[in-house]
From TrEMBL:
Endpoints of the signal sequence: none
Gene3D superfamilies listed in its UniProt record: alpha/beta hydrolase (3.40.50.1820)
Protein name: Esterase
Pfam families (alphabetical): Esterase
The organism's place on the tree of life at top rank: Bacteria
UniProt xrefs under InterPro entries: AB_hydrolase_fold, Esterase-like, Mycobacterial_A85_antigen
């Protein structure tokens, strides 16, 4: 009887540089060497290495090794923005600096190493918020958006989840909460760009963010944006569910 050969290791590269946008060092893990690039945001309070630790990268092993996808796991600054002790106006400004880091540093880094014309953006929980928010705000940069178990209005208090701006609201917050700015999109050129993106929202039936996802889906439908909303049984807000979701939707 022939013994099975061990699985082929996933190609893995660690990256670190000083970010001018954030004025601090930022780290990243890159898995694979070709295929459609996938920009993957971490969950709330998680780090760039947690997707690997939670076996979510392992769930994509075959596609990574077959050069179907190349996964770029970025770090976050959520503890310095949404979950910091700063004043609410400074929390959203720190988030905007993080967005500039993604736009002016991470995406050019991806483009330099991967010549694909496609770019997927995704994340789980708060990472799903990051993915959907930046994807809808900058639709010419992305060809696919996948938001898993995400919340799309951080200003709305929910059971076990606070308003992350303590009742404060300004224009910066408005334009970074999909459930606020999406219903108001009326520029036809912008709509045409968004309509070209493959958009998928995934949420558990018992997840606290179910209504948030249904609200965003309704808003997208109202402005004529094709998308898919998948509602899973149970809460589906754990790594064991995300390991299955990435197989189905990425």
């Amino acid at each position: 009887m022939m013994s099975q050969s061990p699985p082929v290791a996933i190609e893995r590269a660690y990256q670190k540089w000083f970010s001018p946008a954030l004025n601090r060092d930022m780290e990243m893990l890159v898995f694979g060497s070709g295929g459609v690039p996938v920009l993957f945001f971490p969950t709330r309070a998680a780090r760039f290495y947690d997707l690997e630790n939670w076996k979510i990268i392992e769930a994509m092993r075959e596609r990574i090794n077959d050069r179907e996808i190349q996964v770029f796991c970025v770090d976050s600054v959520d503890q310095e923005s949404f979950y910091s002790a700063r004043s609410p106006d400074q929390r959203i400004l720190r988030h905007l600096q993080y967005e500039q880091y993604i736009l002016t540093e991470v995406i050019p880094f991806i483009r330099k190493r991967n010549k694909s014309k496609q770019l997927t953006v995704t994340g789980c929980s708060l990472g799903g918020y990051h993915a959907v928010n930046i994807g809808l705000k900058h639709p010419t940069l992305f060809t696919k958006i996948v938001g898993m178990s995400a919340r799309y209005d951080l200003t709305k208090p929910l059971p076990f989840f606070a308003d992350l701006f303590d009742g404060y609201f300004d224009e910066n917050i408005y334009y970074n909460m999909p459930n606020h700015f999406v219903p108001g999109i009326c520029d036809e050129r912008l709509l045409q760009q968004i309509r070209k993106i493959d958009i998928t929202l995934v949420i558990g039936r018992e997840d606290s963010f179910l209504a948030d996802n249904e609200r965003l889906s309704y808003a997208l439908s109202n402005i004529g944006v094709p998308h898919k909303l998948y509602i899973w049984d149970e809460e589906a807000h754990r790594p064991r569910y995300w390991r299955e979701m990435v197989k189905l939707y990425l």
